[in-house]
Amino acid sequence: MSRPQTTRMFESDFLEWFSRIHPATPFIAWIPVSSYIVYRSVSRHDLPVLGVAGLFFLGVFAWTFAEYVLHRYVFHWTKDTPIGRRIHFLMHGVHHDFPNDKDRLVMPLGFSIPLGVLFYAFYYFTMGLRVGEPFFAGFVIGYLAYDGTHYAVHHFKQTTRIGKWLRRHHMLHHHADHSGGFGVSSPLWDLVFNTMPKAKRQQSQG
Question: pTM value?
């Protein structure tokens, strides 16, 4: 008997509808935001164009670290209580239980928008408008690279060496080693923090 590809997350049809998202939606929502912030940063003329570009690419790089931290410490947070199990299921457990559910492979706007507001505010108040905005614009594009990569490795046949490698890296995280492979768009921080996924789970000793 084949395993179901999806499940309900909420009894409410309204909440259930918001738990599902078309894979193009984050790009439609966030590319205009990032583009406008870059345009505004350049048009203020308080930084050279190369300075804006440099901060933008630093923001892309910063996302790779945020992706790793969020995936490792937030999405995989667990607490063995009814509420703890429910929170984990809503945040990420549903994806591990139903990894090929095409409506839940990118981040719903109900989660990405508040998260984006928090990150924007953090960069604005710690870096200031001039530096924080182009940095945040790059951060957004880094996030979109993550969402796009995540959807692609689950639903598209990978034909390039990089694509095949990223798919294998992520599938090991799903099917062999939940304690490794937290980078999806890049394995960089798995290498740095020694959490590359292993082909077989570690067997308990004794």
Answer: 0.89
